[in-house]
Amino acid sequence: MTGHRETVRSGYSFHTFDEELGKAISFREVDLERDLGRLHTWLNSDHVLPYWQQNDPLPRVHETLRKRASDPHQTLYIGYLDHTPMSYWESYWAAEDRIGEYYDADPADQGVHLLIGPTEYLGKGYAAPLVKALVAFQFQHPETERIVTEPDIRNETVIHVFEKCGFEPQGEVELPDKTGLLMFCTRERFEGEIG
């Protein structure tokens, strides 16, 4: 349910308080039984469809998410603001992902994909604090020195958000489903200038 506070039964994988927003930001791993309905709704939202292209029926979304959740090279998360579920995240090992074929990937590089689900969270300045929190979470892995992402080049809003969070464009990459902008955020830059 959109905008619904919930009691987190499984606990958060990462939790922080953003002083500027005055809100708690948290991530917990996706539980397919619990999250399938909300993820299906979010993936079919008008603002998500152009970039995720997953307007599939519920059984197919279930199968897609089941495959992603069982992939040992990535972890799926639901992102929260003040204990309200409002975003979906994929944190992955870039060298094991298709993006690893487009640059000299280090085995400890991590990547990120995201979407904000309910429309009431769009355009409110929440995306950058959420991205910063997830990147801080990823940099808790001691060997990770770089986070990568490859947003659709048409998605100027999300590219701007990543730039505000310390990501620097590296160039366009032709992926099977989109033209992406490869972007890197180094630990040195994030911890020195952003985090």
Structure commentary:
There is one protein chain. α1 packs across α3. Helices cover about 30% and strands about 30% of the residues. Strands 1-2-3-4-5-6-8-7 form an eight-stranded mixed β-sheet, with helices on both faces. It has a single domain (about 15-195), classed as 3-Layer(aba) Sandwich (Aminopeptidase), CATH 3.40.630. It has about 200 residues and is an alpha+beta fold.
Structural class: alpha+beta
Order of helices and strands: EEHHHEEEHEHEEH
Work out the helicity level.
25-40%
Tally the beta strands: 8
CATH class: Alpha Beta
Overall, the morphology is globular
Largest sheet: 8 strands, mixed
Overall average residue pLDDT: 93
CATH architecture: 3-Layer(aba) Sandwich
Task: Kindly estimate the percentage of residues that lie in beta strands according to DSSP.
Answer: 25-35%
- Work out the radius of gyration: 16 Å
Tally of alpha and pi helices: 6
Low-confidence stretches: none
How far the N terminus sits from the C terminus, by CA atoms, comes to: 32 Å
**Major sheet: order of its strands?**
1-2-3-4-5-6-8-7
CATH topology assignment: Aminopeptidase
